[in-house]
Amino acid sequence: MSEEKFEKPVLPTRWDLDDACPDKPLFILRYDSHIGVANSKALELAGINKDTLPPEGGEIRKDNNGQLTGVISEKALELIMSKLVLPSIKEMKEASTKASHILAQKGLTSLHGIFSADPLQKNDSNSVSELSLFEYFRKNILQNCYVFIEIEDSAKLIDFKKSSLNESKNYAKFKVGGLKLFLDGTLGAKTACMHEPFTDAPEMCGFCVVDEEEIYEKMKTAHNQGFQVIIHSIGDKGCRIAMDLFIRLLKEFPREDHRHRIEHASLLTDDVIKDMKKYGVIASCQPPFINSEYKWLEKRLGKERLKYTYPFKSIINYGATLISGSDCPIEDASPIQGLHALVNRNNFVPDQCISMEDALKTYTINAAYACFQENIKGTIEEGKLADFVILDGNPFSISKNKIKDIQIMETIIRGKTVYKRKC
Fold it and tell me: Model pTM?
């Protein structure tokens, strides 16, 4: 859910949820998965009270009287999530198959995915992980997959290079790319790390969810093992910190063609973009964010900061590499909706609109480059994988306001039709 769609765009409190559901535990997670609200029963079940200290990088919010509001963000969410009962293996297998087919209908032939290698139930060392489940279900996945791993002990990352998940053949369907790290939160949760307070919440600047030295040690370990490092960062200060960490890493341990990435890179000032170009750091952005946020971003950021919010044209003009995704299931996985956002931006800072040619490159050849696979995919030419889609309209000739209506007629992966629209 997103509270921004409410008539009064504020998060509900535990008292609101208590009114609706007084007898059973209830927890509502915001669609970006960075903040949620628990009712009193859920707080009790999780063992959270007014004296509970949040883990580093998390929040347990209180009102002016010191009472719990039920709002919990970032790393404190684990206090609630650890109490959830996982679906059965059968249910998860069916869901993975269904999800892969839905993605094929949307025209996706390759995925860059993120999986945690740590136990889903943090207090149970025998609990399965997201990564182990993916390995178990991967036969059900139609798409090529390039996997980034989230793991507490980054020294163990090297083990996955030797696993069956990391295929060594040239046209590998599954590859392990590197390490995923989180530096800050989101704009929606007001936890993105900002230089200045949020316009509609002057008492809040967001924060880093991890100590800089701690994240640097993990970066260093992965980098020196030959992996890519990708850092989730959204706020303007967060992106500056992420870039400074990459500069420090590459000066201390120079490495050619590392292709490290800042994931989301939502607010990029010119100095950060210039450094991304200079040091070869990729801007991995999610254009569909604009489709869901454009109506409230000015309220959150103020007019001045909008100039460098999702600055796709600036990234291209400075010569940095831009790739596009969706952060699915946070946003619609459809590249068509992403192309609409890149070319139209829903009239949000229209100066940052880019051409259809550049927009398509962010989903194709640039995305292939970002996973070291530009020699086998990203363009249609002899010797590359037969991964492509057939559309019902030419995106180069269709009017801009019709881009979002383009339909996927057929999706072909490795020469095999995996989806064909019924006429």
Answer: 0.91
